[in-house]
């Protein structure tokens, strides 16, 4: 398992000014014996839910704006982004230290050991309790891998899975997904077309989606995104549209079966 090289040479940047639309609330039950929070955004009466997993820097203004804008799209989604890092994300001072970052991920970002699976499970339960009848999941960078792991569980009911600038994606990592993929790759990721092609035989009700942003660097929708830059802001809004439209399309198909 290896990081996209841009994970180790591109520091997080300050985001354009944005007033967060959501709020931080505690999950309804403890995880690993502790109260844990999540960032909730979108209409409180939304029936379509989404779990969002941030990148290795944790909560960041650009990422929160990204979540808020998706939540406002296509009639509204209720998004829950659980805070899965107990001690915050990767330190900016470690951004160029590949070995240090990999060790940090192993120590803090393991799907099972660090209870990421449980954070996701409780956040999804809470969305259902709040009235969401369908739930999708996506992540950014490392978070996209966590989303795929969640959507590969035997009992997964997530409608679709994926995200922008994913790390650690391969034919092997997505082989057990139970839902269609959406991959928005940057210029820094490997070719993701073989990954998308590898799940076509599953014959999901909605075809998986791939798009490559050749003019964007890894992380442009998260902590590495500087939306004060016109090109990144434009591409960020385009990614919002790509994800939200896909989530809405998959949810609409599922709703016909409810």
From TrEMBL:
Pfam families given in the database record: DLH
Top-level lineage group: Eukaryota
Dienelactone hydrolase domain residues: 37-249
Molecular functions (GO terms): hydrolase activity
Coiled-coil ranges from the UniProt annotation: none
InterPro entries xref list: AB_hydrolase_fold (IPR029058), Dienelactn_hydro (IPR002925)
PANTHER family associated with the record: DIENELACTONE HYDROLASE DOMAIN-CONTAINING PROTEIN-RELATED (PTHR47668:SF1), DIENELACTONE HYDROLASE FAMILY PROTEIN (AFU_ORTHOLOGUE AFUA_6G01940) (PTHR47668)
Name of protein: Dienelactone hydrolase domain-containing protein
Organism: Mortierella polycephala
Taxonomic lineage of the native organism: Eukaryota, Fungi, Fungi incertae sedis, Mucoromycota, Mortierellomycotina
């Amino acid at each position: 398992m290896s990081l996209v090289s841009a994970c180790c040479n591109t520091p997080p940047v300050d985001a354009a000014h944005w007033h967060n639309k959501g709020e931080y609330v505690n999950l309804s039950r403890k995880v690993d014996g502790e109260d844990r929070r999540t960032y909730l955004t979108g209409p409180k009466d939304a029936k379509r839910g989404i779990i969002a997993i941030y990148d290795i820097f944790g909560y960041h203004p650009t990422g929160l704006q990204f979540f808020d804008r998706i939540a406002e799209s296509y009639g509204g989604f209720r998004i829950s982004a659980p805070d899965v890092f107990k001690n915050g994300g990767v330190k900016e001072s470690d951004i160029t230290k590949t070995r240090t970052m990999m060790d940090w991920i192993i120590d803090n970002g393991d799907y099972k050991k660090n209870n990421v699976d449980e954070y996701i499970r409780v956040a999804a339960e809470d969305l259902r309790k709040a009235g969401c009848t369908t739930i999708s999941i996506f992540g950014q960078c490392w978070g996209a891998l966590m989303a795929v792991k969640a959507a590969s569980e035997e009992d997964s009911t997530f409608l679709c899975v994926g995200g922008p600038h994913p790390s650690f994606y391969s034919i092997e990592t997505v082989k057990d997904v139970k839902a269609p993929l959406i991959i928005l790759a940057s210029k820094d990721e490997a070719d993701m077309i073989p990954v998308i092609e590898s799940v076509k035989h599953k014959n999901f009700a909605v075809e998986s989606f791939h798009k490559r942003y050749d003019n964007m660097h890894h992380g442009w929708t998260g902590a590495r995104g500087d939306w004060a830059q016109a090109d990144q802001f434009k591409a960020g809004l385009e990614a919002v549209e790509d994800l939200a439209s896909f989530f809405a399309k998959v949810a609409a198909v599922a709703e016909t079966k409810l």
